[in-house]
Amino acid sequence: METSNTITVTGHGAASQAPDTLTLNIGVETVRASLTEAYQDAALSMRAVQSALDKLELDRKDSSTSGLSLRAETAWQEGKGNVTTGYNCSSTLTVRLSLQGVAEQAIAAIIEAGGDDVRLNGLQPSISDPAEVAEQARTLAWADAARNAAHFAELAGRSLGKVLEIAESQEHSPHPLERMDKVTFSAISMPIEAGESAVTASVRVTWELA
Questions:
Q1: Residue 160: domain span
Q2: d(Cα 60, Cα 95) in Å, to the nearest integer?
Q3: Residue 191 — pLDDT band, cuts 50, 70, 90?
């Protein structure tokens, strides 16, 4: 039986860093008797939200409209079937904020400006420039692969030779895998605790066995 002269190992690494950016998904939703009223009132509420953000001197390139929906609201009535009870208009705005700046103030301003029409659909902390932490994750992944390969080679009575192939594992995304460790809202002061974002890396390495 022919003995293999190579060994292939996949290494994994993860590094974390406190996020510096918070992305908000803000919604405005109105239900009115007519489609025109619903649309106009939603537009007024969204303009009020945008005006509140402008007062915080946020860069306009950090916000974008990400959705607009118009639909009839219906309800079942005995003997009539589905009847229209009103009209719904919803619009969404995506805003990127600095966690070192006015994030908490911006959320409060948005809610005050839009009132009952505002919906906070979600928020996601992230790292604006993940290059450094991604490099740390790759370094740890390489060290993990090399350590395990050396151990397996030793168990087989061999040693590692030259590297023949290096490839990112298919399970590794080219973008950082960010996770939200903790986002906490207090009913009184509404602090945002973003925790840390983790970036993972995987590398598949083949060595020649000596």
A1: 6-18+129-209
A2: 9
A3: low
Strand partners, 126: 21
What region, left, alpha or beta, does residue 57 occupy, with left being phi > 0 and alpha being psi -120 to 50 degrees?
A: left
Question: Rounded to an integer, what distance in angstroms lies between the CA atom of residue 76 and that of residue 79?
Answer: 9
Same domain? 71 vs 104: yes
State how far the alpha carbon of 79 is from the alpha carbons of 75, 82, 83, 86, 133, in Å.
Answer: 12, 9, 10, 19, 64
Residues 28, 86 within the same domain: yes
Joined together, the tokens standing for residue 150 give 């050396």
Does residue 102 sit in the same domain as residue 191?
Answer: no
What DSSP letter does each residue of 72-135 carry, written as one string?
EEEEEETTTEEEEEEEEEEEEEEEEEETTTTHHHHHHHHHHHHGGGEEEEEEEEE-S--HHHHH
Pull the structure tokens for residue 162: 């030259």
CA distances to 5, 62, 80 from 9, in Å: 14, 42, 68
Confidence check: pLDDT of 56 > 60? yes
Tens-place pLDDT, residues 142-171: 999 999 999 999 999 999 999 999 998 644
